[in-house]
Amino acid sequence: MSNATFEPRLVGFLCNWCSYTGADLAGTARMTYAPNVRIIRVMCSGRVDPQFVLKAFKEGADGVLISGCHLGDCHYQEGNYKALRRYKLLSRVLEQFGIEKERFRLEWISAAEGIKFQQVCNEFTEQIRRMGPLNLGPNGGKHE
Amino acid sequence: MINLTIDGKKIEVEEGKTILQAAAKNDIRIPTLCYHPVVEPYAACRVCVVEVGLRGKTDLLTACNTKVQEGMEVQTKSERALGARRMNVEMLMARAPAAEPIQKLAKELGLEKTRFAIKDPNEKCILCGLCVRACEQIVGASAISFVERGTDRKVTPPFGEPSEACIGCTACAYFCPTGTITFEDKYGREVIHEELHLGPTTAIRVPIRQAVPMVPFIDAQACIHFKTGECKVCAKVCDREAVNYDMQDEVIEVEAGTIILASGFKSFDARRIPAYGYGRFPNVISALDFERLVNASGPTGGKIKLADGSEPKAVGIVHCVGSRDENYNEYCSRVCCMYALKFAHLIHEKTRAAVYDFYIDMRCFGKGYEEFYHRLLKEGANFIRGRVSDITDMALTKQEERKLIIRVEDTLIGTVRRIPVDMVILGTGLEPGMDHNALAKIFNISCSQDTFFLERHPKLAPVSTFSDGIYLAGTCQAPRDIPDTVAQAGAAAAEALALADKGTFALEPVTAEINKDLCSGCQICVGLCPFTAIIYEKDEGHSEINDALCKGCGTCVAACPSGAAQQKHFRDAQIFAEIEGIFLV
Q: Cα separation of A64 and A40, whole Å?
């Protein structure tokens, strides 16, 4: 499969208060953006269990996005800081699994930033399109 | 009490009062120059001289510093008293020929000119020393004093140089009876809207005429008492002894169930657009400055005046200053078009000056607004469609001399025009108020891209925020005019009341719970919870979540190593199923 026709499958974990609302704003404002990111709503980016990310890659995701409120703006005071810490640790684990760290992305998108959500979706989709599909073996681990 | 007569009138006054005070209390006027009620009398000008009879003897005494005595017979208008006063004023006329109050006094006494030699025809100072006494007794600075003797005597700061002791309070100018000491800007102009504060004010004042409660306050930054510890004139003259210098700001804590944020806006600072010359040209004023100027209780009594006190012949009103501009704010401030029309109408009504409105689009969106615009068109206001590029005082033609020239591209006729006017009013836009960001942090609410507070939903929850129980009203949420603000405030009040009246609060159903059988008691979750909703039950060896405190963020669930913590509606199993599900299509 050539990269040009390859449509990446991306999973986005969006927090309810900022990023999901920001995505909603992009929708109500009729912005067009790459439809590749499939969104799973969680109450807070701090709810994102590293297992969810691993599960998404195992199920066939080519990239995973976690998005929460800007630092200091968390509806639950500090959930996004916890997401940031888990993101840094998990990025190292993913590399050990042979998953490039560029396939795992953390973004802060506020409820007012519909435009930023649009940009992130487009950029991330293009980036993964260039990188090509993630080929994991049946038991995880990458085919060489 | 002491009994005496003044001009034949029987008077009873307290002991220790002066003849002048006794007369003033009974509406008998004795002219004075060097006297002021809050400064110790000095009897320098000798204008208050009266004829006093006591124990069969009469004498000429100054009323300002002579204490009343039992049986005094005072005559303020006897031939002898008037003769002496006339002589004193005649000498003052020679001393200070340029002082207007002395000329007025001379006229009252029937004097036309002085017989004595005039040394300096421009002299105003009568060497009464009221300024020196005020600086010493009221201000406590003693920055000026008499120097030299005889004909060389004068009032000056030490060595004739600006004194370090001077605090710039201008009390000397205020007290000077002849206008010798003046307070001018560096060009020697007396300005009406000095630095655009629109006129002088006092350190103790009522903030605005509509203030509630209607009581004065002391501006500690401007008050002499807070600079030198002296003065206290306001306390001296207040009969009710209401002046208190020890009052401090107080922090009041109020417990509330619901909160309405109505923190308002601040006007766009027109200094940020240097090309418009706000702050450089005294006759370029902002919308709020004009509101103050045109206010009947304002510094000019509602008269529209230029900085030099004259009336403008042509006025330019610039719309969209700081609004609809990529360099400043992209949004429309909504209110400016309509207040600009109001200004145009007021100028037309009060001065008959030519009015030029420079607009991008006229946005007359409300009830009766379009009709008002048409009325202005009929009244003869000139509407020029185009954004003003700059405002200068550089004249190219004779007609433009001593005018402000507005350069604008008139997009309806497709040419650049130069319009000379006397006054420019900048239609400054609205920006979120001061402390806006600090408030957003305190109440944990977000701001939209235009930096105003963000509502929960633009259509379905326009007065709510993402924080439960906190509502928005007015211009803290977006620029809006008064009718819209009142309507929105009503809605916010109704929402707040509905919640308060119910007395109960529906919690989010997405709280977390801990399965006791799976919990190992590792307490990782306890440290993570930002709301201290999780407590470790030591005796039972597991943690528990307090439902009322849990806000349902799910941080503990994501961290639980044994899967004992689960969030309702966001269980691990549910999200795993969701992940599987989205790859089915």
A: 11
